[in-house]
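Morning!

This is the sequence you dropped in the shared folder:
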Amino acid sequence: MTLRLPVPTVLSLLLLGPLAATAAPRHDHGAHEHGRVALEIALDGPTLTIGLEAPLDSLLGFERAPRTEAEKKAAQAVLADLRAGAGLIVPDAAAQCQPVSTTVDAPTLQGGAAAAGEHADLDATFVLRCARPQALASLDLGSLLDRFRRIARVEAEIVAPAGQFKAALQRPARVLRWGR
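The structure's back. Tokens below.
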């Protein structure tokens, strides 16, 4: 039996998932895998929301608060690059998407500390407005992969008017495709 939820319901669940994750401790340690990045992609009308979750090791090579000056500079560079957002994840040119906002949450790098024995992650959300959202069927991740060389695999869950999809990208591939 396949459970099919209406796209608005699935979209709401997808977009509210990160909020629920911050409300209660996470226990999905199986999902934490070095070299892997997870994307949650939601297209609702002209609004494209891309949630990125990555182990700090996949971005920095360590999963704790930075200790040395070099580590502190590297951590600040990661935060700055992700906050700038522009060009790291590029939607189909035909969709004509423009950035609206970016948020980055990495408590371990932002003055917080990961509890002993826990893996530290970074979460980022990129919101874009697309003039032709129906043309969206791929994301170019080349700049993200060039900037963060430790990323070996990207796994994505996509919710769009055309349906629900899962897609994966493994280096050396650079474009994540779904749907058509």
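Headline: The helical segments are 7-23, 56-59, 69-84, 142-147.

More detail when I'm at my desk.
O.
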